[in-house]
Amino acid sequence: MAHIQQLPSSVVTKIAAGEVIERPASVVKELLENSIDAGSTRIDVEIEQGGGDLIRVVDNGCGIDAEDMALAFASHATSKLRNADDLFHIETLGFRGEALASIGGVAQVMLQSRTHSQLSGCEITCHGGELSPVRAWNGTPGTRIEVKHLFFNTPVRRKFLRSTSTEAGHISENLTRIALAHPGLHLTLKHNGKLIYEVPGTADLLERVGLFFGEEVRAGLYPIEAQREDVHLYGFIADPSVERGNAKLQYLFLNGRWIRDRSLLHAFQEAYRGLLMTGRYAVGFLFLDMPPDRVDVNVHPTKCEVRFREGQFLYSMMLSTVRNRLSAENLTAKLQVTSTLQKPMVPPSTYGGHMPPDVFGTGFPQAPPSFSGPLPLPPVFPEPAPRQNPSLSSPAQENGNPPLPLTKGENESLSAAELQSAFASAQASPSSVEHSFLPPEQNSHAIQLYNAYLVLETPEGMLVIDQHALHERILFEQFKRRIREGTLETQRLLIPEPLELNAEQAALVLEHQNELAELGLQVEDFGGGTILLQSYPAILGNRSPQKILKAVVDHLTGKERLPTREHLLNDLLSLMACHSAVRAGDALNPEQIASLIAQRHLADDAHHCPHGRPTALLFSRHDLDRQFGRI
Ligand code: ADP
Ligand code: MG
Fold first, then answer.
1. Ligand 1 nearest atom to the CA of residue 111, by list position
2. How many C-beta neighbours within 10 Å does residue 510 have?
3. Where would I find the beta strands (DSSP E) of 292-435?
4. Could you read off the pLDDT of 77-112 as tens digits, one per residue?
5. Threshold 0.70, pTM exceeds
6. Nearest ligand 1 atom, CA 145
7. Which ligand lies nearest to the CA atom of residue 35 in the structure?
8. How many Cα atoms occupy the beta-carbon half-sphere of 30 within 13 Å?
9. Quick check: CB of 573 below 6 Å from ligand 1?
10. Measured from the CB, is residue 60 less than 6 Å from ligand 1?
11. pLDDT tens digits, residue range 494-514?
12. Closest C-alpha residue for ligand 1 atom 17
């Protein structure tokens, strides 16, 4: 074993930098925080090649004294903290004194600064930890910092950088957080000389939300505000219709700092229970202000996670504030308007005078079992989907389209060969559940319960099918088969549909252009974060391809790291299937029920939806007889 040695400070810095500086966006975050701590009212950010080549941040803050220039790059050197007690009264974004030292250790940094009382400023460089002497600098008051060739001396880390547009997207996300947390701040971002964002100091929070996330989000917001003891919660929460496929648009800020907090975001999401489909996320911009001694911000190197003294108190404050606001909008009532159950299949007395079970997990026990989400759309089963005039249809009509009538009988919708192979595979299957479907005519007696389950009699017993899970499985396999066979019909749009995204999302979509094209979703860059949708899979029927593309985008951006191509395709397929399938809450007519059940035989794995949930449960005849004491 080698002797133990103290590591040289250059190595220590590189190790520390690994924690704080993960990618160009981390540099931008730290520099922006320093500018804000310096009281700046205007910050201009310029990056080149996703920040890997250059990051320049210019602010009009208080500036740095000549004698502090070198200290700014020293580890654990800060002007924001004097003693350990101060750690519990942090009112600045920075306090660890680590950022500049870390950045200077892994890049070529030029720091130029002038305080407002000085007549001229000074500059210093730090290249991979090597400091230059301090020189005079003739600039305006404020600080200007240039970070070139990030990770130039740590080639492995440089290799880990993703595409320019992805890195730029992460930077834009960090800038967004700062812009939302600091109304009054004038902020600009340029990438390769092109102005990406200009947020005027006069733009209030709502305008900022509109600027970054578009009009649709902004228009769907309700203000919230609550004060309990010395904790102030305020901001905007979105109408459930503004939902997303991931939690990225759940922004939470504590004392002006963007934070991640699973517990508080859980409370927020919980408040929407019953108003959103499972797997969908609410949108909100939530601000918490409290005395700094109620929270420990020193638990995470990048300061994104904090520890609250009274977690439970805050959880319930969040939950009740958001929930009350949503009920003030009468949103719970909207979900209860109509009962689309065709017939009362279960006599009320079955419930023994109690409320029906909370089958949809709505959390609102007062909701009748007819909870219906979006308006029922017909399923898109019949294959191949006939298209009379492909060039003229536009997905923009998604709500105006008359629903595709699903009048085909089960036998018409299936080719003889398909039926045959289905029977063959069913017979080969060892599962009694699968056998119970033969012959298919028996299935026409299925009834629908709660607009969610199909119940049918089989020789083995009573089979309860989850209509969404089954349809999802069938569509998933149809998609897959057609892609494999190269028979996926795509529908070209006469007029491409624009989709407005933020820079990060647009970059991700473009990075996956090929995979998306394989799925029939052809996209093209229109510039400025706008993506044009050129075509979509015809199998989607009258579901909005734009909505599905949006869900795909959410899915891509929700991933921490990218999956393999095969995983990605699988993921996206199941996502498209999920979005196209009938849902719990959709009333189905008898033909639709019959068609769905008939196609069950065509699925290779009819027992599980693509996410692995069961599609059907069997209550065996034997069990029923036994429970009722017949045997
Ligand atoms: P921290 O922000 O945790 O104090 P940093 O390494 O980020 O540590 O910065 C070190 C010090 O450099 C800060 O405490 C501050 O005094 C000074 N500094 C850095 N950036 C700026 C800036 N843009 N304007 C004024 N002072 C700055
Ligand atoms: Mg700092």
1. 20
2. 17
3. 295-296, 307-308
4. 788 877 777 777 778 888 778 899 999 999 999 999
5. no
6. 23
7. 1
8. 25
9. no
10. no
11. 888 888 888 888 888 888 888
12. 72
Given a contact cutoff of 8 angstroms between Cβ atoms, the answer to whether 557 and 248 are in contact is yes
CB 43 within 8 A of CB 33: no
* pLDDT tens for each residue of 102-150: 999 999 999 999 999 999 999 999 999 999 999 999 999 999 999 999 9
Cα 72 to ligand 1 centre (Å): 6
Q: What is the DSSP letter of 333?
A: H
CB 535 within 8 A of CB 521: yes
- Between 262 and 345, the higher pLDDT residue: 262
CA-CA distance, 146 to 194, in Å (whole number)?
Answer: 18
Supply the residue whose CA is at minimum distance from atom 25 of ligand 1. Answer: 63
**Mean pLDDT over each residue of the chain, to the nearest integer:** 78
Distance 69 CA to ligand 1 centre (A): 10
Task: Tell me if 96 CB under 6 Å of ligand 1.
Answer: yes
Is there an atom of ligand 1 within 6 Å of 17 CB? no
Q: Is the CB of 102 under 6 A from ligand 1?
A: no
Q: Is the peptide bond before 439 cis (omega within 30 degrees of 0)?
A: yes
Decide: helix, strand or coil at residue 631: coil
Which listed ligand is nearest to 33 at the C-alpha?
Answer: 2
Residue bearing the CA closest to ligand 1, atom 18: 34
Residue pLDDT, tens place only, 385-424: 333 333 333 333 333 332 322 222 332 333 333 333 333 3
Higher pLDDT, 301 or 135: 135
Give the helix ranges, DSSP H, for 75-213. 99-106, 155-159, 164-181, 205-213
- SS3 label, residue 497: strand
103 phi/psi in degrees, rounded to 5: -65, -45
Size (the chain), residues: 631
62 ligand 1 Cβ < 6 A: yes
Burial of 7 (0-12, 13-18, 19+ CB in 10 A): exposed
Token pair listed for 396: 């923009």
- Pocket test of ligand 1: the residue of 78, 115, 147 to mutate, having most ligand atoms within 8 Å of its CB, is 78
pLDDT tier at 598, thresholds 50, 70, 90 = confident
Cβ contacts of residue 439 below 8 Å, gap of 6+? none
Residue owning tokens 């294959």: 383
Pick from 26, 37, 126 the residue to mutate for probing ligand 1's pocket: most ligand atoms within 8 Å of its CB. 37
Tokens of 28: 């931008």
Ligand 1: which of 20, 100, 131, 298 to mutate, most ligand atoms within 8 Å of CB? 100
- Is 114:140 a contact under the CB 8 Å cutoff? yes
pLDDT at 551 over 70: yes
Ligand 1 centroid–CA 201 distance in Å is: 23
